[in-house]
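User: structure tokens for this one?
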Amino acid sequence: MDASKLLDKAFEKARIVSQAVYRQSKKKGLAKIKETEINRIKVVRDYLVSKLNKIVESFPRIKDMPIFYVELLDTYIGIKKYKGTLAKFKYSADFIDKLFQQYKNKIKGASNIEQIRNARKSFYGRVSSIIKELPFDELREIEKNLKEFPYIGNSIYNVVISGLPNVGKSTLLNILTNNKVKTANYPFTTKQILIGKIKTPFGDIAVIDTPGILDRPLDKINKIEKRAVLALRYLADDIIYIIDLTETSAPLKNQLNLLEQIKKEFGNPIIYFSKTDLFTDKEWALYKKLNIKGFTNPKELKEYLMNKAIEVMKKKAEQ
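Assistant:
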């Protein structure tokens, strides 16, 4: 809804109600006109205040959000902007309510029809200015961003896929979960957190694809990269770190540097070597030389995750 539609609806409702009030009123002369016009501006007040308050209430309160979503919100919108935008709608609702009381008293104290109608027109004008100044575009952008937030649901085990941009994170998500995430051959294809599920007899394994992180200190990352770090920090029961030995995404040195940062910050991840279909003797030799324990077959990785989920369920049952 935008400002014009909101005002049109309010004024139309007020017109219909005022006509009914005028016909049914038992009062005469000036008193009848006052009653009609007070009811007219009351309908406008009631409708707009109700709509604005419902808009505010339809958005989650910061204090009710888990810390992961609060910090994620800050990377999309900014906490200050989020609070400020909603505060404008709440303040406007309260101000329209106060205006109604002022103009109701003006109409009551009017001594002729012209004063009554001028008061009503003035109320309409001030209310219209308030509504037209509201940031509906910002509100729609906030709503769009909130819809992009990941929903984990009642998963029994959460696995977050991490690595540099374009190493094959979304491709692995698709293979493990039969998802259909579109991939493109350039960095930062994934700008949000995507979730797929592996179904097991015990419940779902949530596999979480994150934006790529560049090889730099975690306190120097940008907002898109921060979304990946938040997922690692708050959502991960385990982390899959992807290494691309073909180096079509990034030099191996950078990939190993980031791996060390991940280990230092979050513990040892599960290693998966991507793009093995592109391996030549050179990559297989490098794989052996690195001597890093990891998976090269996504089916074996999936089986491992399912067995790990069973272990998690057993531990939870024992607690």
